Structures
1.
Amino acid sequence: MKRLRFAVFYALHNLARDRQHTIFALFSVAAGVATVVALRMLGLMLTDALTSNVQGMLRGDVTVESFSGGFRISGLQNSSNNDVAFTNENIQQINAWAAQNHVDVTYSTTNDLMQTALVRDGQAGRPAFVMGYFIDPKTYPFYDTIKAEDPPGVPLASLLNGPDQVVVPRRVATELGVHVGDQIRLGTASALQTVKGIVPDTSESSFNALFKFLFSYIYIDRAYSQEFGLPAGAADIAYLRIPVNVDPNTVAQSIPDQWPRPLIACRRATFCWRVDTTSRLLQANSRLADLASRFMLLMSLVALVIGGVGIANTMIVSVNRRAPEIATLKTLGLKSGSVSLLFLVESVISSIIGSVLGLGIGLVLSLLARSFGEEAFSVTLPWRFSLDPLALGLGLGLVIAILFSILPTLIAAQVRPALVLRQGNVPLTRMGCLAGVFSLIVLLVGIGAMSQAIIGNAASGAFPTRPGPNTGFMSALANLPYGWIGTLVVFAIIVIILILIWIVVWLLGHLPSFQNPNLRIAVRALTQHRARTSLSLLALIIGMTALSGTLIMTRSLTMLLHSSISEPLGGNVIVLPLLSLTNGAVHARMDSAQGVSGYREVRIFRSSLVAINGDYSWDSHLLAPDDLNTKVAAGQLNALIGMRVHGSPPRGTLAAGRYLDDSDAGKYNLVVPNLPQLAPLGVHVGSTFTYDIGGQIHDFTVVGLIDPDPRTGLIPFSLGDSAVQAPLDVASGTLPFDLTIANVKPESINDVMASVGAVPGVFVFDLSVFDAIFNRLLTQMSALPILVSVLSLFAATVLIATTVSLATLERRRQIAILKALGVKRWQALNQLLLENGIVGLVGGIISLLPSLLIFAAAPLLSGGLVQLPVPIDLLAIMLVLSIAVTLAATFLTAWGASGEKPLQALRYE
């Protein structure tokens, strides 16, 4: 105990004396602990959101809907009692059953996609898509109270109290520019709807329903659903509130037998009702929240390990600087074990202080994590203070600090007393083979144990062990120690990458200096401590690769989806005239609208290609018939569409012949894409294509060949000029209406959509709707990876700052000599910035390589179908960010060293 007491006071004295090294060690620990606390807090917030109010999320104790109930598009079909799950007839029977069982019931329709637009001064604005929520406002929902933001605090039941009234969420209000009291056109209703209130977007959770996430919603009183083309009293979901003394599961089990069968056809003969309960939802949400929490906690180990590397770096430098002191202590009688104890206690004390500092930083970062989490999971996350993340962060920070301190303490124990008798510089201590192997084994065992504890039995759910021939195999998979396996695999990958980075650093040391003394000093400094530089570079690469990869691929997919939709469709505005009588009005408005270069009517046939030039086995004679591109081309040839072009929309490049025009009306002429796979068949102008259209055989003559658009990779069956085209009127279509695809200048899209959308019974939308949906999906999917990447990059920045600080402390004499020779402070600082700017540049380039490899591999793996666009601007931004991170860390830590006075630095220590 006396030795321990001595070690504690000795450690405190050294921490106070060597304040710079202490600060570096503290922030290394704090960065990792802060990441653990922030992500653990996010996991708890997600758990609270998904499990604390399951009744509010389900809107009742039990919900019932039909297995056959599905997504509808308002106006595309005329709904009848046979199309909906709940009608006035069976609702009366259900209400009688509910009264008999003392159960409260309310109904809603939430699967109706509608188009809406603001109408002001008789002019309609740009339309948008929403899901119509037909509810009983006096009883919906049974749990929670939906209150408006505007007018503030007014409940939903008080807002909807008459016909032609709606309540919109904030997202719709912002998109349409709607305020309380404005009027909107909604769906197929003939009367305009008055906006009575604006509620928060989170009033309806989109967590368990994809369509609720893709599209926003509008509350409508179900009593007036008939005005929107729905049968009177129709509904697709029933919400049940069960008495307190009754088990909801018992009620749920009795529903399939006691409720009347819905009129719509059941996909299952026995069970026509899909019943969900709070217990089932709680179980599913708890499982999901647990998996998400474990994943986030596992990712936080990355930042902890980066912080541990910073501790090890700091302690190794401290051991080298204090080698004479250690030798003196051993000369006075301290054994090697006692010396190790001194440094271990010092590491524990600094890790405790750093962990406490990290707890405070983590609580602040948890607010940032909450915003990312709300974006990722599309739910409101309640922030609350909890001791669990603090205890976990403190414990993990202490364990990681001890694990990474073993090697420096063993190195300290190897210092020999003979060092005090030497004159001049004390040689740097070296790591012994046994010490290195032992510390590595302890480190792997410690990290593997933590990983296994975090993963636990989470993998068992991914391998269900149902009775069957593979039961033993699946059970073995579920019981594998994935934490240990993952640790060893990641360690092997890191070792390989670290070796490659070490080679890169060695190559940097052989860069030409071009007779520039600053560059020559910078290159030499990079290779002076290759291992330390390699570790810093590795940490930077991990953070930047995760961040840049997520952002770059998200942007690339967005660009790809936009180009793959707009170009193959032959326009950017789509019109669905639901009634044939509206075609004339739509065309008249298109013809008179400003900014419309042209449009085309498109009719989709039910067709298949029978023969080419009399060859009935044409598909087997295509170029490389087993190739993926050839199979796609064969499918494209089978998809015959009818087309009539108005005006001058952009058209494909003619390879031979001509386009279809008005003179082809009623004639069996054809324009085909000039696909390279058709070369063996000798297709040319005048060739004959035989199609089966709706059971009738027709011979078509090719009058034109058009070079296919290379951007049709994701949508090979396009509706533009890369499709097989015939005159519109040669056959009837498979849809009850013809599409109208217009090419409109971007600045005129709003006016054109407002004009065309004002025609009753017409759906009009531009392709930015799909962009918004895809962007929302990609944003949600990338929010959590971006959060983890940012926190890892934060830890990497701290490690870089620590490495730079240690390097400048070791080079105090070098800087002093340079300043004694006349080098100014800014010149010394520029020298350090140049040195670490090279590290940032190299790290940024390496971190971009995985994304560039994906760009190169996508065409190869997809047979040329998918070519990901490269966002050059974002690549440049990520490269600049990598350099900026290292330069900022260098400036903050090297500013003081660059101002060192030569006389003070050159004094004998």
2.
Amino acid sequence: MLSRQQTREAMTAGEFTSWQRADGHRTVFLLDHATRLERQLLEAWLRDTNPDQAASGVSPAEVLSLRDSRRRFRQSAIQRIAELCEATPSPFFVPLRVLWIPAHGDRSARAHLKAFLAGDPRAPGPLRQRWILSRDPRRARPMAAEGATLGALQERFLRGHGRAPRDAMQLAEFVGRQAVLALERAEARSRGTRYKVPRLVAEEMLDRPALQEGLDALAAETGRTPAQARRYAGECLEEMAAVHSTFYLDLMAEFGRYLYTRGFDPEIDVPAADVQRIRELSRRRPLVFLMTHKSHLDGFLMITMLHDMDLPPLHTFGGINMGFPGLGTLGRRSGAVFIRRSFADDPIYKLVLRSYIDYLVEKRFPLLWALEGTRSRTGKLMPPRYGLLNYVVDSYVRSAAADVVLVPVAILYDQVPEVADYVAEARGVAKRPESASWFMKYVSGLHNPFGRIHVRFGAGVSLAEVLGPQRTDAAPTRLDLQKLAFQLAVQANGVTPVMASAMVTFVLLAHGQRALTRGELGRELRSLLSLVRLLGLPTTGDVDLASEEVMETVLGQLRHTGVVVAYEDGVTPVYAVPSDSATAAAYYRNSCVHFFVPSAIAELALQHVAEVEDAEPLQSFRAEALRIRDLLKFEFFFDEKDAFLDSIERELSLRAPDWRERLTGRTGAAELLASLDPLVAPGALRPFVDAHWVVADALLREDPAQPPSIKQFLKRCDALAQQRLRQRRIASEESASRGYLESALKLAEHRGLLEGDPQQLREGRRRFAEDLTTLARRIDRLTLLAEQRRTARDQIIEG
């Protein structure tokens, strides 16, 4: 038994000191307790507060134990609730629970090994409860959630189910679930939004008429009885659904912190304005975070960040291959949703997944997955995947939520731990399968000084604003998804900051095998930085490369991982990217290359005007810019044609305000090009154009009467690229990277160059190769022009 002093101290710490009442109704207290001690605390609290309604002429209050020690509903309690629902006067239900407070409070408590061994401080076992109560009774706080009348609960059931309950028992089960959910909301308000966890997911979902009707319709289609279909749906839900625990939320947040701080600066570079905006937005609307995916650390990083921001727990989507014992258990208990890699032939699984996403969106739990569906192996944003996006959009149009805001998140690392793996995969090495042993090796490798992590949140895309009013009679079209995905990709690219490591690798790669002195590198970086400032591009805080300290740090990091090498035995040290590290260096450069593509295309279009006599040089410039855009549309995200032309002309106006007046013909175009500093086309586009040219060259050698096997053709492209690299006909090994070759092949397929009439294929492939040969030659001209300018500048400095 509890001592009177213990009881009084616990009661004094209670969340409520007076009971919410409803005149004319009989109060029914629903005690949600896991141990006998918790029931004693709640009953003592009830006695002390004396909820006596005799004066109002209503029957005395009744007390029911709602769930057992395993958190399952007591059948006796459900039966009694059913009886009360049919009794007079009608009941007013008040849920009660004991709130256990960690020794140092929720907001300062962090999960660590000691806490893990002792158990969850918010859900202590029976013995630990008594130990806590004997030392600090104030850590046990009785708590009441908002009560509800039977009539209000019946109305809530009708809104959610579209019909009245079939009997008193169904209504009683609903009342029990609503009591638990009300307690969870009250607990989340007390502990913090980060601990707002979904409860009774299976019970709520599987009771929904829409899901039941869908399962009944699919039963015959899948050769099952309705009962078998529902049982299988429950198995699917158990396999995919997260099972949250507040303790595991803390543990996962700390585990994520442990992982990224092994190799990175503990302080994440994220603007305070972004944090405040996302906090405010999450209070008003359901959020879906779509991150750019560079590393295995991304998901852990986001979980830790949003936990620290006191946002509701994330539901992160990943492949079921990541659900292996250990990490998979930790992930599932902290919000990971593991879904099958392929379920196109399983309509019940698809229905359950759709219903689960409906549920999460409706309950306003934030979702997270990779916008690209997988990690980028090239460093630049890949085409978005539509699978999960389609489910969320479908939930919105079917009115699962009033609105949903999709927020792109750009994640960048000064150096990415997996780059060596990406380089190996680019050379054709098979990806290593994930497993517990693989993960342990990965964690043990996180010990290099990789620099800082940079995170930026996009403005977000509101489905209500993009798709308009909800329409239950129409599913989203593929065009809807494509437009939405394009907006998200553009936003993600737009907020991606230019990093110092990206600028260093951009400059060094543009020089190929030519090493630069510290002075030469500094001048090139300052020139590029001037363009970055002129275009108003976002940057990380360390981009001031005029600082000797910053340059020393960045070069040191890149040298440590072998991306850059230095030769220091001469008169002055010189720096270069070794030939076998070009693909790794390109990974960092590609994080910012999209910013320079419009200016690069403008330079190549000016070079075209400088070579080809045309009576309308401006129209010739625009037509050539659109032709280059069409050649590179599977590599970069481009606006529609008019908007694209506006963007490149706007940027050109910043670089040369009088460019239209000077573009009078070949001579004017050449002089205009000579005045632009720096010339970015060689550094921004050369590797992609080279890869496209390799594919075009390989297609010319294929028999047009025989459609190529994609897998075998890519192998031949890779072999040809290696040959051209040794012949110095392409500039770098990165142009032989599998990702670049695959993008070029998609373009060829889009142009109908893989199969069809042999004569038309021959002619089409020839024109394709000529276009790319011309483009490569013009990049060579700009490279020569840039080199001549640098040589002249260096001579002036030396003189």
3.
Amino acid sequence: MKMDIFSGLAPLVGKRATKAIFRTIVYWMCLTLIFSGVISPCLGMAQVLAPVSLKEVPVPVPTAAVIPVVTPGVNPIPGPGTDLVFRDLIAARIVKDQNALIRLGKALFWDMQVGSDGIQACASCHFNAGADSRSKNQISPGVKDANFLHGFIGGDNHFGNSVVPFTAHDINFPFPGSTEPPDPNFNVPGHPQFAPNYELTAADFPLNDWFVPTNLVPRGNPGPPPVLVSLFQELEGVSRDTNDVVSSQGVRNTQFVAVQPGNAEDLGTPLPDIFNTVKPGNPRTKPRVRRVEPRNAPTVINAVFNFDNFWDGRASFIFNGVNPFGFRDEASTLIRNDGTAQAPVGTQVFVRITNSSLASQAVGPPGSNFEMSWAGRTFPDIGKKMLSLRPLAKQLVHPKDSVLGLVSQATVLKGKVVGKPGLKYATYTKWWNDTTSVLTPVAGSAVVQKASVNDPRTMVLSPGKAAVVKGKAAGAGLAANEYTQMMWNFSLFFGLAVQAYEATLVSDNTPFDRFNGAPSLNIPADPTALTEQELLGLTIFQDADPVNGAKCVNCHVPPVTSSHTVLDNAPDAQGVPGGGQGEAIETMIMGDNLETANYDHGMYNIGVRRTTEDAGRAGTAPFTNPLINEPFPLSLVELAALRANVTRCPSVPGINTGCLPDDVARFVPDVPVLPRRVSNGAFKVPTLRNTLYTGPYFHNGDSATLIQAVQFYIRGGNFPNTNLHDKTVDIDGIPPLMFPEFDPFVAIRVEALVAFLANALTDQRVALEKGPFDHPQLFVPNGSPAGQPAVDAMLEIPPIGKCGRTAPIPTFLNLKPMDGK
């Protein structure tokens, strides 16, 4: 009989909270015993208990299963009960040289030529501690807000307006809009200064601003009898509010026409957009500035530990080699050529690669018409362009770059990097070694994501099936719809290479790591690594008391400081995340009526914004479940509910697949789920490491400084009543930290918590961009000059070698952690 040590407490506070309390008790017992000399770190307690240092957390290793398509149109991926053969990437004959893959990944990540405009790189939104510190033209209206009728690109297209409850005459109905004023009873102003190309200031934050920021937000009572709190009452202490998002600028809205081999910029036709400086919110063509993404860009540093990636987790733990959605895409294939009878030229194969949500994430933005691409560009098009260009041809690479230095064409003269931009060579493998055939896409087989209420982006998710054209040398001139094997498979190696590079970006040398030591590695703890103030902050951070504790540790689980990790979701060798007593599908008692619900571990609704403004984890993939003719959900718990539904969809006896196709069900836990499931408005728990430099914070960029983020938790969220049905129970205020402006003792504790977050979790290698956090030169758009919306004001990020820089990187708006209190 399997025993759950948490079952006794679970009815009181939920399994997640009890496990967090247990982890906290064990953590402190371990440290106390080590410091007192009762036990020795060499006993390897971290191997038995949870790791206490990030050094002890293994970097997930991708393993690949390659399944040939024997009969076209018939999916050969077996269902549950039949194991796939997973091998590491070298054994699977996908990668030949891991170090070469890392070099390729770093080059592709920083290369401005990847973007359709020859400017936008992956790094354009991740250049400052893996995040984005720009402040001009970084505002997007609430384009995912379902409270508004869908405008030109979905949701609310109006900049800076206050949160107005939906009426039949909102700002976008009839589009391009009446100007009916908000309900006068609402009486909460917005941010009327917000507009395309606006320059943010510290005074603009937080977006949801309160007269007394640590006063508990008014709360109802689930009863009995129930006492409800209206939206008007909930926001009676709010001085201003908006559903706008502070995010990252991408490309200008443009229709893709063709690649120009040898040219970094694609051919394209300008399209109208709401991001214009003449009539913001109404689509126009000529005064366009760069469009801004609908969510804030999280850091890529330590992202290798995330189970799924992106805020909503749509970048799947299982990489399919083509797009972000992993096993939810049943059709996309690649072309393999081994030169053998088993794999002749043009062999279609399915790929399923575990531990690879970073690869799934990497292949999303390059095709997105918000982030990096003209609308309609495919990954083979990206491959066709990139394979005609010198890597990083527009950027200098420091000759002492930790990864690319040996292949840099630049030199250092009087302390300055000069000379030729770009690299000397690139390396490829068998998956693109066929130089005698030309591939053309089969008409009608491409998969295109259309804009929806879940996602305003459009992109070609898959070029579809490929037809092999014989008798034409690949080296000859190619038509617009012709590609080599190398070009066709470019998404596979783009994803795996960027992932391999990002997997090196692990910041495991913080004061917090040194304080804990690494018992399993025989690294002793250093009790002097944290100041007294930071130690007090750590105590508050670790306090999981369900009534008065800060409960930070419940979601931001050390040492990764996130709970949506590979470590927590515990996938098995077949890529199936832990179920049952495992961590992938969890139970939690909800705050509205004490009813227990299931949720995806590490995905929570914390009430930053109204649930209806962004569905988050409750979104869907742009692929249809053929058994029920509905989109596949992103949520693992919703997928598990479909698999368990054998009443609606009778399954083969002995193996439950329910309402999921076999090839999808094989990656979903076969566990019973509760009638109540909470995914609406839930987002991935981000890591708090290096958070000093990764502002603004939350998925909508609400807060500019750490004190503002801490105040959010002290007051118990922004929308605890509106989101009550879906909100995690832990967001209920922190009474001992309220009103620091009136109580010096409380002020000391709040400042200590902020100091712990700002200092104890910062790796100085990140702050000083020392290897592996060094990088090539980069030019990022930073809005447009006044009156010149078609022109970019470029911000130069200089090349940095492995020895780093002399001064730390800037914080957002150069703010200090306690600014804005």
4.
Amino acid sequence: MTTGTMAQTVIKGKVSDNQKHPVQFATVVIEGTTEGAFTDSLGEYSLSPSITGKVNIKVMNIGYKTDSVSLEIENGKEYKLDFILKSNQGNLNELVVTAGAFEANNDRKVAVLRPMDIYTTAGGGGDIVGAIQTLPGTQKVSNETGLFVRGGDATESATIVDGLVMQNAFFTDVPGVAQRSRFAPYQFKGISFSSGGYSARYGEALSGILELNTNDLPEKSTLNLGLNQGGITMSGSKLNNNSGIEGSLSYTNLQPFYNVAKTNINFYKPPVGLGGSVKYTWTNANHDLFKLSLNISQYESGTDVLNPLKPDTTLEFSLKNVYSIANAYYKHFINDKTYTTVAASYSDNNDFITWGGLPGNKYDSRLQGRAEILKEFPHRIFAYIGTEVQRYSVQQTYDTLMPGLSYDTLTYKYHETLTALYSEAEWKALKWLGIKAGIRYEYSALLGKSNVAPRLTAATRLDKYGQVSVASGIFYQNAADKYLLAGRRPDFQQAVHYIANYQYTNESRTFRIEGYYKSYNELVKELQGPYNPNPYRLISSPVDNSGNGYAQGIDIFWRDKKSIRNLDYWISYSYIDTKRNYENYPTSATPDFISNNNLNIVGKYAIGSTGFNISSTYSYASGRRYYDPGVSDFLSSKAPDYQNLAVTLNYIFTINRLFSVAYISLDNVTDHKNILGYRYSYPNYDKYPILPAMYRSVFVGIMLSLTEFKKEDL
């Protein structure tokens, strides 16, 4: 083997299992060197070695038998090597031990959508959560920020990045205007979503989790530029033999967008901001992996928002947000069946808010760490044990105008340290039967209390393409910030999940039907005062854990990428029946963020070899409940049904060696006048509609890259 200057030697190919399904995130390495690559979502890899001579190329992935082949590398040549890995658990594709989540990949994560699916889903706005909301089990609440899952409000879902909780997963909430998540899809190799029954690895979420796994080494060195009505972005990566560095810069200014969009809310200062990120990745011949990243952003906005006390008037709401987060992740292979992971992060968020001329600022930070050891045992057993510690602080200040025209500053704050131990084991007892059991212990220093949460999942394969899964578990979560900031210390809230599903997967088609029942116990309940619909009210009542509720329903999902050439489409439908008696509800009722029926139809069509691709999404939701003080039945009135048709057209073209994508997105093509609910003024109780920020919008942009897009990804 010799080392020297190479004239672009390339080794590439595809890694599949014995069912010809792609194997994602497999390691392809030249033995005895640090030169290697990871397979992408299609099982494809590419590496450019800096050596010549006879080498041994090795492919490995947990759950599969290692494969290798000898190759004589010559200067400047291109080699195509495909691998077929055999499962060392009989057949990994025979069974997926999961319920409450979509398809599992070979790293035992839940694979929902590829990054390009996120970008090309019409109506999603290139936002991860926007695309997730086209899946069953979710609700799109256009005037509120967050991920709403199976009857849970936005506080009941957690977002996880590389195993660590994102405290501020969304841009800061503006009353009446839903905010997007902080993530760009290209940052992640795995996007996972669980609508219930999730792993013992995580807690503090009564309803579901969105789990994101960042990319490892970049596939190649790149430079990208994006221009659109909302601003400009630049990103790039530099790949070395065993390390890589990536970075991005963005400038956001939505003034050009709002100049042409017809809005229902006055944005007297459209959002303007700057953001940047840098990430370093390193690996070695042992396939250890280290990732270190830093993200910083700052933006300002000003909006006239509905006055929650007098909905016939508006208040000026100005916001300046400064946010930063640093993440570190290390994975070490002890041997080919055992590895450890260690991760840590620190985030800091500062919101400087003026509402109706009065300041009301919020500061929060989170320091956390997690360590795990994972091992594959004989007899088809895979297990891990881990621990995590989270230390977070929240502080809110309000300036109030007191009688006599004097100002008074109120300060509320709390500090929490959560410690957890957890373990989970998956056993493929037979080729057609699998069981996964876990347990999680948590201790809250703020409450001085602990809990134990068992989880259990099982699956059985019925035939070559179909399987049945069931899951159950107990989930705990602290009270919402508004109670802890007010000095209230209720016990943990609890939810118990029961889930059963059937899934059929055959080549490029998937059908899934899932039923669930969720019991809410020990919810926070305010003990005094009449019902107040103002979500921003200060808590003055004592509270306890006497609240309760339930959510039950059925989710249906169908995806087909085969029946019609160049067409990929999916249909998702959810029915939910849910009631709860919590917070300051006077009785049990369906919450005002719930639509009982939700339907999404998503289609993507490539127009031959023209370079044009079209995507459309139709969304329907039955009317949400709203509070009418003139009706005796609490939260019994319903708003009109919600409908939205979105269309995106993109065109792939080249200018010399510059590969480009131009796109135009139209939201609410039919200009349907959606009404999200109503508010009533006091004391006359005049009725005022709650409207989305805008009815119809058009968004135009272009993305330029020095590297070629794979058409099969678009």
